[in-house]
């Protein structure tokens, strides 16, 4: 460090501070939010911290300074976090008759309360679902009052409580059993359906975890006082999400079928909740996606909060995020799957 200029010494100190913060963020997915509720919000900064580490690495590399090893080590140790944040190439395996497709989409009640100026959003969402023709469609924040219908699906399970927005699973394949998991003191929930595809029975869970209640346009009116409110609201939501995840884990453990878990987790891929719910399942975006996989329409942050987790017995052959379809505050996601041939 003695050979560094005054400016580079300052840069290296900032680099060290960033390294410490990044390692803290690496540990947080393993710590329960109820123990460190405020600290858990820090996981939302992971994409920015990874990007800054890349910039520091390039900064030192261009000067051929050995200080590049610090950020290089951070990035190497966080390689699994990088793949959750950004994928450089996608996967699109050949189609087969055994393939099936699943779409997950938070439809924001089909614009029931006119968040968007268009008056025909239910019709546009209906047409979008029809055009993409997924075999299984899971819709969060679903409401019958949205005047949307999906006649192309013979089998369905819908759930809503006390007039609140609910969820729906539509399937081209028969549904054997279905049900729901209610979360205490919350309008959020999980629904499930046991779907029969030829000789296989597959449990599909559709989730809508505790909402953080932050508008996509919050950046237009944020100030110091509101930032404190947002920070507190996030930490409280993450604590509730942990409780909900624990209820879900108990229900999930009693299922003997291969399963798919999809929906709106309202949390990042670097969170305790994500790690808890995903378990040893495959993240379809990590398996076959590309780019940031941004699923929430926030202007300045590549928020991926909608997921599809697939059982180990399933092969993820394709994954898409429809980021140009802007008729909700979320983007639809869709994946093509198949049971492994040796199953």
From TrEMBL:
Residues 103-330 form the Endonuclease/exonuclease/phosphatase domain. CDD domains: EEP-2 (cd09084). The chain crosses the membrane at residues 12-32, 38-62, 69-89. Signal peptide: none annotated. GO terms for molecular function: endonuclease activity. The keyword Transmembrane helix applies. This is Endonuclease. Keywords: Endonuclease, Hydrolase, Membrane, Nuclease, Transmembrane, Transmembrane helix. GO terms for biological process: GPI anchor biosynthetic process. GO terms for cellular component: membrane. Pfam families: Exo_endo_phos.
């Amino acid at each position: 460090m003695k050979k560094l200029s005054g400016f580079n010494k300052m840069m290296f100190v900032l680099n060290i501070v960033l390294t410490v913060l990044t390692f803290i963020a690496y540990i947080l997915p393993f710590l329960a939010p109820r123990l460190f509720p405020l600290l858990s919000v820090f996981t939302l900064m992971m994409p920015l911290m990874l990007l800054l580490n890349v910039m520091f690495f390039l900064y030192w590399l261009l000067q051929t300074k050995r200080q590049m090893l610090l950020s290089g080590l951070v990035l190497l140790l966080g390689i699994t976090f990088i793949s959750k944040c950004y994928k450089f190439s996608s996967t699109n395996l050949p189609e087969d008759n055994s393939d099936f497709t699943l779409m997950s989409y938070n439809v924001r009640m089909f614009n029931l309360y006119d968040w968007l100026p268009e008056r025909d959003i239910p019709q546009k969402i209906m047409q979008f679902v029809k055009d993409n023709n997924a075999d299984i469609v899971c819709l969060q924040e679903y409401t019958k009052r949205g005047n949307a219908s999906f006649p192309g699906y013979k089998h369905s399970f819908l759930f809503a409580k006390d007039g609140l927005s609910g969820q729906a699973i539509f399937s081209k394949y028969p549904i054997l059993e279905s049900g729901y998991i209610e979360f205490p003191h919350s309008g959020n929930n999980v629904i499930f359906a046991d779907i029969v595809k030829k000789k296989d029975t597959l449990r599909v869970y559709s989730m809508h975890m505790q909402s953080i209640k932050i508008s996509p346009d919050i950046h237009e009116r944020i100030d110091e006082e509101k930032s404190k409110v947002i920070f507190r609201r996030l930490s409280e939501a993450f604590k509730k999400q942990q409780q909900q995840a624990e209820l879900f884990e108990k229900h999930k453990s009693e299922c003997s079928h291969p399963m798919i878990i999809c929906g709106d987790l309202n949390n990042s891929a670097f969170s305790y909740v994500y790690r808890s719910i995903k378990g040893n399942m495959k993240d379809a975006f990590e398996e076959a996606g590309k780019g940031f996989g941004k699923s929430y329409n926030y202007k300045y942050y590549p928020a991926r909060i909608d997921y599809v987790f697939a059982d180990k017995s399933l092969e993820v052959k394709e994954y898409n995020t429809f980021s140009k379809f802007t008729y909700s505050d979320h983007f639809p996601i869709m994946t093509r799957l198949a049971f492994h041939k040796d199953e």
